[in-house]
Design goal:
The chain is mainly alpha-helical and 142 residues long. It contains 6 helices and no strands. The chain starts with 7 loop residues before the first helix and ends with a helix.
Length: 142
Amino acid sequence: MPFTPKFAPKYAPKFAGPTVLERVIAGFCYFSCGLVGLIYILLTGQTGRQTDFFRFNFLQSIVLGLLGILAGYAGNLVIQMLGGAVGIFSSTAANMMTSPIALLQALLQGLYYILVLYGAIWAFLGKQAQIPLLTKLVRQQM
């Protein structure tokens, strides 16, 4: 007979952790800007009964995806406007003005991909990724 402590049920953790399915779905939410989680919610029909782990990662992936999309569009808009306005006078000057902005946009896009990978890895591990400003915003909405 295996050893069971006398007080084990009293001190046993109430939450053992997310299931493997929740981990996988939460991880893939980051790669699809939350679309996989939305499909999972619709297929299971559990709209109000999600765990805090899944809800947190689902919302954080949506907010992170929206910020990435908005940053990409804003960068392209600035490059197009600045390049067009300066390009009227000189195409060389337009290239010189837009090159640093394009470099900054590429760096921000790389940071976005790193954050997506960071969030997905932590979700696959069954933990909540702590992204400085984003996590605070998501926790306020939960």
